[in-house]
Design the sequence.
């Protein structure tokens, strides 16, 4: 990321949002809203302002588990390393302005709209962790029920506990930990899909990590199926079992809490050896939640006119033969924007997306099929129905008649079916051709 | 589609390939009915 930021010709807009995209392959015009940081580009991220700031907010990067100041850097390795002010928390005392040697703080900064011209677009919007509804498996009700992402931050050396494993209720180290797999995924009432084994592998990784640091910890993983499908994954899973981590095939429906100790009581049954229902007590429960499309991704989908699959991720051209392109030329997908996948697969898809666009943009010419709508301007009544019905925004009604943009047009024929004056024809799929086909078929009967 | 999933369908069903279901015009459907078709399935 840092290397990219330093490469000439590479423009990175962080803390920004795409507002509008127009044009077509080779000639996209993109409007980007650069949100106000209230800190200008002179900032070098020295951090003098954080120390004097008296207002606090929750650190989003650490899943809200520790406080941060109202003026902060999003996270330690953020690129560019620049402070920003959370105006919902700021009390506008101006102390930060006083200590900033570079005079970088500007309370009057406003959102800025930048317009860029690009040839092609890669959609890599990523994912968010599914947040279970309050009360489901004790989430948000019992303090010691946390999600995998929170555990991930607790175990991180730059996290809220500086890498020490503690549980939220009393800050003590949990001795008995339960991981619950498939929370919100492979569930007919929530997400029906499997998050491609990612949550399984994260659980296996974290169990190994905890076991290595604290070998006396008793770790159990409650799973439906461990989907360790991938290179070296099965061996990793086997290694974790050899280290003494217990895997129980079960389906947990409810968790109770001991109000005194905040320990969690779980009734479960090993469905592989049919032990009957037994109650177990755990210090910490980790919910391995599904991967869902990033929050707010519908907006960019609407702007780019991308289709969604049933699961909410963006729809690719073809799920098996072409999982990178979208139906719109010049716009490609990478990573979890297209569907749940691991880091290795995301990298592979990202590189494939970049190279497919490099091949497309490297040529001076763009080849189109001749199956495109054509307008007979003498017949055109300029009613505008074609423009209204075009799913690709490829036809515009001009004063001298409708005009087709042959690059945007995909040759679907929606315009000609709606044209009251029969002014539009589709090359290779003209009306008389269909009429002859119908006549020939019905002659036989 | 019916062919790729090896589904059986009567031999009297005759498919006509169209670019997009949006391409189907009422006049084509009326022509087929007029020429003696019992029904039309628009599938996409």
Sequence:
């Amino acid at each position: 990321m840092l290397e990219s930021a330093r490469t000439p010709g590479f423009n990175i807009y962080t803390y920004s949002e795409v507002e509008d995209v127009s044009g077509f392959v080779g000639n996209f015009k993109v409007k980007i809203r650069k949100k106000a940081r209230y800190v200008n580009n002179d900032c070098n991220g020295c951090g003098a302002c954080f120390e004097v700031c008296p207002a606090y907010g929750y650190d989003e990067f650490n899943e809200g588990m520790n406080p941060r100041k109202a003026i902060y850097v999003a996270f330690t390795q953020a690129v560019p390393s620049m402070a920003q002010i959370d105006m919902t928390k700021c009390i506008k005392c101006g102390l930060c302005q006083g200590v900033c040697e570079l005079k970088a703080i500007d309370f009057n900064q406003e959102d800025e709209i930048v317009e860029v011209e690009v040839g092609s677009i890669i959609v890599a919007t990523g994912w968010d962790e599914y947040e279970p509804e309050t009360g489901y498996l004790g989430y948000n009700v019992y303090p010691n029920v946390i999600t995998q992402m929170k555990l991930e931050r607790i175990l991180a050396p730059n996290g809220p506990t500086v890498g020490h494993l503690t549980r939220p209720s009393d800050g003590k180290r949990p001795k008995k930990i339960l991981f619950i797999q498939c929370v919100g995924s492979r569930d007919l009432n929530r997400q029906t899909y499997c998050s491609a084994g990612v949550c399984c592998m994260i659980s296996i990784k974290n169990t190994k990590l905890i076991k290595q640091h604290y070998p006396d910890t008793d770790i159990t993983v409650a799973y439906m199926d461990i989907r360790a499908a991938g290179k070296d994954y099965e061996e990793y899973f086997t290694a974790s079992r050899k280290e003494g981590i217990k895997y129980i095939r079960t389906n947990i429906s409810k968790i109770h809490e001991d109000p005194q100790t905040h320990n969690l009581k779980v009734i479960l049954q090993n469905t592989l050896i049919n032990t009957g229902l037994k109650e177990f007590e755990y210090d910490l429960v980790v919910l391995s939640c599904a991967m869902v499309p990033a929050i707010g991704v519908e907006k960019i989908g609407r702007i780019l006119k991308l289709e969604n699959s049933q699961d909410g991720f963006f729809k690719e051209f073809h799920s098996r033969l072409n999982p990178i392109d979208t139906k719109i030329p010049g716009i490609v997908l990478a990573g979890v924007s297209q569907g749940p996948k691991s880091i290795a697969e995301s990298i592979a898809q990202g590189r494939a997306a970049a190279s497919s666009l490099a091949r497309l943009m490297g040529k001076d010419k763009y080849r189109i099929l001749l199956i495109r709508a054509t307008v007979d301007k003498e017949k055109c009544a300029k009613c505008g129905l074609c423009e209204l019905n075009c799913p690709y925004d490829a036809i515009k009604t001009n004063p001298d008649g409708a005009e087709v943009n042959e690059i945007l047009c995909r040759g679907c024929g929606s315009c000609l079916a709606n044209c009251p004056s029969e002014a539009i024809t589709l090359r290779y799929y003209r009306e008389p051709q269909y009429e002859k086909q119908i006549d020939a078929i019905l002659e036989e009967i | 589609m019916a062919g790729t999933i090896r589904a059986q369908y009567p031999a009297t069903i005759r498919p006509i390939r169209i670019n997009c279901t949006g391409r189907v015009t009422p006049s084509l459907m009326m022509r087929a009915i007029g020429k003696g078709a019992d029904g039309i399935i628009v599938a996409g």
In short: The CA atoms of residues 20 and 44 of chain B lie 7 Å apart. Chain B touches chain A at residues 12, 14, 16, 18-20, 22-25, 27-28, 31-32, 35-37 (CB under 8 Å). Residues 16-44 of chain B form one domain.
